[in-house]
């Protein structure tokens, strides 16, 4: 259990050691109190994903067709938020049991992944490395950067570079995939450096193995053809539709990067961490307040809790949080991962970047 001053230290920005002992009572409660809500429910997943995607398509079409600037902006915001929620189901795909939601991976890829040029292979087999006990927070973690220990200017750069994502994805699928089919060195480079949704520049993806190899082929083929269709659309529709859609999806990428910025505290210097230390370096933004449901949809406002129970379906995380908070109390380790909101978290990370270090 944590010391009595843990919460005060947490709120003051004090860190904790990567090898702090695991809170076995918390880990046991997470296991025992949530067994009855651990099953993914298709009746929730399918309508949520399809509805979010369809709303995104309607909004993006409206933004292209309307004339007024304010109307374009309004529809663009709706489209960016809707596609953002639809896109976040890629996170669920990496954790749910392969037999839990028959056809969901294929449906998501056809409706969201390939049209947005982010097919599921770019996350599958990558994100699970972030959850490995011995790799989280180390140089082998594709989704970890010690942002709180870097320079202050790195934070806006980290966020703003995401605005280029639509252009980068069109180049990756439309140009580099066919080049890689001809030139093996290009193919190797693209697979290692541009085939995963990672933020660690040192990460190199290993060759695909097993079932994912076949999925990679078809998903890359679909992405390549779609990228060609997008570029080709300029010749009969002009630049305006593609630029409008690209701008909306740039906002989607920006939202995701902002969420990533505050998904962890980023205070680890590369050392392997205990499960409890990983949990406390991760972030919950629980109710009250609704803003987190917008910038951290599909259960991602409970990101620390997700690190305790990676396979828990997103629709069960709110109830799991309520049970654990009630059982463990505000002085527990569990409460130490709960934070007020994005602004508070960004401020904490920014202050950490300005702290002198020897």
Automatic annotation (TrEMBL):
It comes from the Bacteria. Keywords: Membrane, Transmembrane, Transmembrane helix. Residues 78-329 form the Fatty acid desaturase domain. The keyword Cytoplasm does not apply. This is Fatty acid desaturase. The chain crosses the membrane at residues 44-66, 73-91, 103-123, 157-183, 225-255. It comes from Qipengyuania profundimaris. InterPro entries: FA_desaturase_dom.
